[in-house]
Every structure is written in structure tokens, then in C-alpha cells.
Amino acid sequence: MLARRNFLKVSLAAGGGMLLTAALPARAATLGGAGPDAVALNAYLRIAPDGAITITAKNPEVGQGVKMMLPMLIAEELDADWNAVRIEQADLDARYPGQVAGGSTATPLNWLPMRQVGAAARQMLIAAAAAQWGVLAGECETAPSQVLHRPTGRSLGYGALATQAAGMKVPDPKGLPLKNARDFRIIGKPTRNIEVPRIVTGQPIFGIDVTVPGMLYAVFQKCDVHGGKLVRSNAAEIAKLPGVKAAFEVKGGDNLRGLLDGVAVVADSWWQANRARQQLDITWDEGEVAGQSSRDFAATATRMAQGQPESILRRDGDVAAAFGKAARVVEAAYSYPFLSHTSLEPQNCTARVQDGQVEIWAPTQNPAPGAALVAATLGVPETAIRVHLIRAGGGFGRRLSNDYMVEAAWIAKVVGAPVKLLWTREDDMRHDFYRPAGFHFFKAGVDDKGRLTSFRDHFVTFSQGGAVAASAEMTATEYPARLVENLEFGISMMPLRAPTGPMRAPRSNGLGFAFQCFLDELAHAAGIDPVRFAQGILGAPRLLPDPPGPRQGPGFDTGRMRGVIDLVAEKSGWGRQSLPRGTGMGLAYYFSHLGYFAEVVKATVDEAGGIAVDQIWVAGDIGSQIINPLNAENQAQGAALDGIGQALGQGLTIADGRIVEGNFDSVLPLRMRQSPPVEVHFRVTDHPPTGLGEPALPPALPALANAVFAATGKRIRSLPLKDQDLSRTS
Amino acid sequence: MAYTLHVNGAVRAVEADGETPLLWVLRDMLDLKGTKFGCGAAQCGACTVHLDGRPIRACQTPIASVGAGRVTTIEAIGETRVGQNVQAAWIELDVPQCGYCQAGQIMSATALLTRVPNPSDHDINAAMSGNVCRCATYTRIRAAIKRAAKAGSI
Fold first, then answer.
1. Taking Cα atoms as reference points, which of A212, A6, A240, A16 lies closest to residue A110?
2. In terms of Cα–Cα distance, which of A242, A234, A236, A249 is closest to A272?
3. A350 vs chain B: nearest CA distance in angstroms?
4. pLDDT tens digits, A577-594
5. Of A377, A428, A378, A322, nearest to B41 (Cα)?
6. Which of A332, A658, B6, B10 is the most exposed place for a label (fewest CB within 10 A)?
7. Interface of A with B in 158-197 (CB under 8 A)
């Protein structure tokens, strides 16, 4: 019940109100673009006389499938013939609320409002038909793309009704009846992505493919120590190289998310620009880099852990006294590394600045702050900026920042021609907003019945500008808080120069590894099977409410968590499989982004220490409705495998303030030969539907590490696994 | 330097430095943007094209080395029976997420199926491990290759 109330609050605050007034203008107008005869019923959809329905997808598409999902919601309540639906990507547009791809929020925030958009248009079509026939609207119903009046046996297609419907009164969305889930014809049906035929034939649909007449190509060299200042360069010499149109210094600001110092090289082709760049000779003022290295961070964290935490995030009971009474006390230090997002399409953006107008084609997850950043940096009003949302070759949170956008706009302004800025892979890896590393110093006690009675974490994390670095925080409700009588979370921070930011399942992607591995360690110390140990901590099904505050969430439902643990145990044959030597199964479970996930990994470690991931089982609870099962399975498989890839082969090293790694030879992406079958099961529960981009990721890493322990007896307390010696002789 | 390239069944004249990688000639000079840039170091396979039917990484192939070789890109792979089966399987199983790597995946898969019509999991691992899918759609890529193999055997 609580969960539902909170959900409604969120959806109204973040989109509802604005949507209802702005998205359904009282007088709909014909839009250009998809045929001059198509009529708009509201800001999201227009219908042509032949019945073709064009639905606008408002959110940025980065591979999460939102360009399909949002139109499916509208089409369902419109009662559209899905085969007649065309989908069009919106630009950044004030009529559309929440044009962001992040936080797995698109489903919870749009589940009701998008359906209301479709329902409102359906009412207008019904009203138009009723007026034509001189019957009561209440006597009419709809079948896919047509209005029916059964008493007289009449029917009219949506195409024939569109013009008249556009003139009808726009109904109040709040009072509109919505379909019962059992009547859904589109929601809940495996629905193929309309974009795939274009993808498999190589159509130019990505940001990197954008072409504008007269366009030049740009690269931008920044200081590899983030925020370093440009002292001098040979840009004037570089400008004379073959094919180079311009090479110039850029003076940026101090905001690591904005325009920074650098040298731009602009040429007739990207390859010429990038080749000329290799002859750049730049003197930088790097600033203070002392202590800014992975080795120093690890040593400092260990030293800090020997003292008291700088601050206490949560204190329940008396951990010290409880440790004294415990039957078994376990202490362990866990850590995880910095990570780069490594979206396969490197950062890029195309911009044109002409007559005071700025036009931008950007594969971004978060266009509105990008437009504001460009406006502030170029000194133009936001109304002079137009941003086209272009499909992105992966996002994972990297494209929530818009540094590439302001760089492209600035360079285009200076050269006075349209410019496509494209980063190299090395640029992309060395100028990211990193998943912060983290260090956890745990101590916990279990009693003689194997119950978890005390739990302490001293979390050594990072600060930037005096505050906790982005995505480096932990909340006071981190599991198993609220479920252990004596519990203490303490925090200490180390200053960090490299910028950090959200990466798929921010915070949870690292915390999940540390906490879920340590809990597995405790289960083994208690001599209790990890599934039973988890059930023991979670106890009876109940809702643990979040503390009040501006970021109050819907709480944590122990019953939903247990539900997916039980499901994954059943599906994986947990405890019932007889495993050969060197093979083990590991369990982990995690709640993030409103989704409950439990995963089991089966892995084999050979004599030489090589890890083969044999199979993964995923069980998830994201509420009452899987909107598109075909995409949901794909997302859950991909998220789990993303976690496996990170755990096996990914981690960045910082040395003297710069990222050492630059390409896929040192940050190892998951490859086909490492990729096991992934079985996905959803537990449908009576809760509002929530998102799926992120919550399936966090359990995958600890489930793998726990499987490696089960296989070898070696506890994995740091990542990536490629840096660990698991050979049997060691 | 002037070069004459054989691309997708047509003869194309380009004027470029001989060191220019085939990738950038395709993308920026011949407007064939289906072939993608991912790493610039033959590490990710997003730029995979066929040279005389063999999969190569276009980002590491200077145009001076292409000579009279026949280049096939994603834009024309559907003109072969195998390529068509692969594309159809990708659509049927709804393989992509972001889709950025998939042109390269399809080029490698088509080369594999042309050489080995009924590949084992081991064959698939060997032929496809040079192509990174950052969204990790490997489960479906594997299934789609098997689907395309089945279609090819009918």
C-alpha cells in the first residue's frame, strides 16, 4: 500500500502536472513532417487519413528500448492497431516532461501519464464518431484503430475521424478510464523493436552518423589530468598541416562537467584532424597531483580504517558490545575499482552555430542540462538552442553529462561552420565521469544459532570540493540496515580530482559487490546455507519504510526480496545440483531502482586459475506488468552480463592524477567466449511497474565472486578477477 | 593519392592519403556509415567489413593495402543469401539493444556461416569473440547465428 502511494506521488511530481496541461493543448494543430494531411490530437500523436498513426517517443534512446516502450503505452490506451503505428523521436521540447534516460525512471514516471495521453485521444475519436452518428459517446466502443457503435452496427476508422477528433474537447486525463490489464493487446506482448531492420542494414541512425551540409570534423585535446590548465601550444603550427582547417586553443572554466581548457583541431576529415592532433605539443599546468593515484588511495584507505570514521551514517544498538557476545566474529576488507562507462560509440556531437542560433545533434541521455550549459557557455539564450536527440550507441550513465555537447558547440562557433566532434576511445576512457572506487572495512558477528547480530562497515570513499563525490555516497538504509539489531555505518573520505558520476545502477554497482560478498562470507562462517541465511536476515514479509526526507523512497519490502531469492533458488536447482570439483554456485540479491533481483551464478575455475562462467539465473520483481517481455529479457540478460564483464576484467588505474588505461586491451570487455546462457524469470506482484535498465546488474558481480569462492575456497574481496591468482598451486 | 576501390559491387575512386584507414574512407568519403568506429585499435570489431569474403577490421586497414580486393560492408551484406538469413534472424530474435556493434557482429557472423554452415558453440566463440557488444546481447547473437544456420540448411 505504501509503495503504491509513494509511486503516485513521484509520478505526479516529476511529470504528471506538467504533462496534463502542456501535453494536451486544447486546440490541437497539424504538424509538419510525416505527411501534411496527418492531424495531431495532442503533442504525442497524429493520425493520417489513411489511418497511419505517428507516435512521438519523448525520451532519449540509448539501447534501453524506451523508444518502443513509451509509444506502446500510448498505443494501448488509444486502442491503436500497432501495425499502423509509426514512431518518431522527439527533439528536446518544453512540451515533454522528463526527457532523461537515467535511473530506470521511465517506466515508473510514465506508466500512467503516457497511458492517459492515449486514453484522452481515444475519447476524442469516440466523441467525433458519436457526433457524426448523432449517438451518445457512451454507447460507442473501440476496436483496434476504429470506433464502433454496436446498436446500429456502424464503424469508422481512426483515419477518417482524425480531423474531426482534433477539434473535440480535450478530456481531463484524471477522470479517464484506463484499460484493465487483462484487456491489454500491446502491453505485455513480446514486441519487436521497430529499429532493428535499420540497425541490421547499417542505416545512419547514430550520433556519429549525423551529416550536415558543409560539415567539418573536429577532435579536442584536453589535459589528461582532469581540469589541468593550458599554458602554451603549437596550435598555430598544426593549423598548417594537410587538410587542417583550423587549430586553436580553448580557454575553459573550472567546472569539470563544462568546457575545459584544450586545443581543437578541425579538418576536412576526422582522420586528418586526429592525425594532425598527434603532432600537438602542449604545455599544461596540471595542478596538484600528489596522492592522486590508485596505490595511494588504497594505502590511505587502509590507514583511515585503523582510526574512527570521520562521520557516522547510522548507529543502531551497540556493535562493540555485540561483537563481545558473538559466537563468531568476521572481519574483512573489500574494495572495488574506478570504472569507465565505455559505451561502444565514443562521445560525439554535431553542432551548427549560425546567426545567433545553435543547432545540436546529440546522442545524450540528458539534453536539457546540455542546452543550458551550451547557452551559458556561448552566451546565447536557451531559446536560441535546438537539440535533436539522436540514438546513442550505449549510455550507461555517461551521457547524462554533456561535456561533448558544449565542446562541439564552442568549436562550431569559433570555426563558423557546422562541426562534428568525435572523441577517440582513449579520449572517452580518460575523460569520463568515473564510477568511483570504494573501500569497505567490515566487521560482523553471528550468534551460536547462526543469526546475524551485529554488523559494522567503515566505508572509505571520496570527496570532491569538500562534499562527497558524485555517486560515491551510501545511504543509511543500505542492506542489511534495519534488519540487524546492532549496526554501524561510518564514513571517511579522501579528496579526489578525477570527476565521478552515475554509472548503470550507481552506488549499487559497487556496494552490491562488497555487501553481498561479505554476507556470503558470514553465512559460511555461521555454517548456514546462503539462501537460508538470507531468509533469516529478511524474516517475515513486511515493508521497512524509508526515513522521511526529500529523497524518501518507497521503502524495502522483505517479502518481495525473499520472493525472488526463493524463485532463483528453485530455478537454479540451488543446493540440489551435484557439482564437480572446481565448480561452484554463488547467490547474491539486491534491491535498487525500485527493482528486486536475486541471481545465481555457476562458475568453474580450472587448475591454472582461469574462470569459466557456466550459467546465470536471474529472478526479478519489477511489479505487476512486464511491458515488453521481449526487451525485458534482453535488458536483464545484458545487465547481468555487464556485471560479469566488470567483475572479470574491468578496473581503471589512476597514477599521478591521470587514467592509465586507454583502450580495450587493458579494460577488458566481456566477449562471446566468456558469455554463458542467462535464464531470466520475473515474479509478477501487485505493485506498480518499475524500470529495468539497472536493477538486474548489482547482484551479478557478487554472485560470481561467491561462486568462485564455492568453487575454490578463495574469497574474492577485490575486483577485477583478472588481477587475482586463483590457480590451485597458489 | 588516387585509389580505385571495389566496394559493394561498384568501382569507387577516392583521393586520400594511402595510410587512411578503410573505415574512414567508407564512412566519411563514400558515405557508408553502417561500419562503425569503436576503438581504433582492432579491439572491438565494430568496424568489421569483408575483404574478398574474409572479415577484417577496417580501422586497421590502410586503403593503400586494399588494392583490387572486393570490399563488402553491412549496407550490401543482405545481397548474399547468408547475409540475408543473418539479418532476418537478428530481426526475428530482436537481438540488438543499442545496436551500435551489430553491423560488425553481422559481418563476422556472415563470414562464419559462409565458411561453416552449421557452426558449433566453439566455432561461434572463435569467430565472434573479436566483436564486443557493450550491451552484452551475446545470448541472442548466439541464438540468431544458430537460427540463421538453420534457415540456410533448408
1. A16
2. A242
3. 14
4. 899 999 999 999 999 999
5. A428
6. B10
7. 190, 192-193, 195-197
- Is cis: bond before A113, omega within 30 of 0? no
- Angle at the Cα of A654 (from A652 to A658), degrees rounded to 5? 115
Interchain proximity B75–A201, CB inside 8 Å: yes
Nearest to A425 among B38, B98, B140 (CB): B38
Angle between helices B138-153 and B81-92 (to 10 degrees): 130
| B115 grid coordinates | 565458411
- Model's pTM, two decimal places? 0.95
CA-wise closest residue to A149 among A163, A164, A133, A165? A133
SS3 B68: coil
Gap between the Cα atoms of A586 and A588, Å rounded: 7
CB A63 within 8 A of CB B97: yes
User: Three cell numbers at A128?
Assistant: 467525433
What residue type is assigned to position A698 of the chain? Answer: P
Alpha helices in A2-154 (DSSP H): 2-11, 17-22, 66-78, 106-133
pLDDT at A175: 85
Which residues, 6 or more positions from A292, have their beta carbon under 8 angstroms from its beta carbon?
A225, A496, A497, A498, A654, A656, A657
Using the Cβ of A669 and the Cβ atoms of chain B, whether some distance falls under 8 Å is answered with: yes
CA dist A698 and B126 (Å) reads 29
**AA identity, residue A692:** L
pLDDT band for position A411 (50/70/90)?
very high
Judge whether residue A58 has pLDDT over 70. yes
Nearest CA in chain A to B90: A200
Give the domains, in start order, of chain B with CATH numbers: 2-72 (3.10.20.30), 77-153 (1.10.150.120)
Is residue A28 within 8 A of residue A121, CB to CB? The reply is: no
Residues of chain B with pLDDT below 50 are none
Count how many residues are written for chain A. Answer: 730
Pairing of strands A53-57, A85-89: parallel
Domains in chain A: ranges and CATH = 7-198 (3.30.365.10), 207-287+347-422 (3.30.365.10), 294-339+434-544+554-723 (3.30.365.10)
Interacting residues of A182 by C-beta distance below 8 A, sequence separation 6+:
none
**Cα–Cα distances in Å, from B58 out to A379, A465, A529, B20?**
41, 44, 52, 10
Comparing CB atoms, the residue among B46, B73, B102 nearest residue A200 is B102
Query: How would residue A3 be classed by pLDDT, with cut points 50, 70 and 90?
Result: very low
**3-class state of residue B146 by DSSP:** helix
- B84, exposed or middle or buried, with CB in 10 Å at 0-12, 13-18, 19+? middle
Count of CB atoms within 10 A of residue B62's CB? 14
Q: What is the pLDDT of residue A730?
A: 52
Number of H helices, E strands in chain B: 5, 5
> Of A688, A692, A607, which is closest to residue A642 (Cα–Cα)?
A692
